[in-house]
Specification:
Elements lengths: L2 H17 L5 E7 L12 E10 L5 E12 L6 E2 L10 E7 L4 E9 L4 E10 L7 E2 L3 E5 L7 H29 L3 H4 L1
Antiparallel strand pairs: 1-2, 2-6, 3-4, 3-5, 3-7, 7-8, 7-9
Length: about 180
Amino acid sequence: MSNIAKLLAVIALALTGSFVQAAPLSISLTPNKANPAQPTMGDQMQFHSVITNTADKPVEGLVAWISLVEIDPGNEQPVDLEDWSAQKAVTGARLESGKTLETTWPMRLIQRGDYRVVISVTDRDQLTVYTSPTVEFHVTQKPVLESSRILPVGFGVPLFLIGFIAYRHWQTKRHTPSEQNLT
């Protein structure tokens, strides 16, 4: 590489670096330590976010929301959180420089699959949406039939019916006059 090409590369890096601004918001996202290690359909999970204003001026009209994306191969899609009972959004009128906004995002797991959750934040003055790192998790299928609930019913109902029929038969025989008493 010639010296002129190296000089142009250094100038290009310096110029682009001088125009790059640090994001005014820092967002972290962590799963709650009490979340199940292997979540199953119907389980409750919580995620914690911390939004920090890293700018030297307040952020006005802050809006933060949670998003869930299914990432199963061939079924990649955003998920409507209405069924998942997740909190929709958090708003803040003003977040001062250096201050944080902490939020807990509860979620009830509805469907099996692989998912990623992310927190997105914007404000009234910026045209940018800032996002947290994603948290990935897998939801397993909840068994529809559980033998501990089916076996008592499966054996209990027939045994009850047989016992009831036998009891009624015994009651009928006991109260029916015999043929000898009729003559």
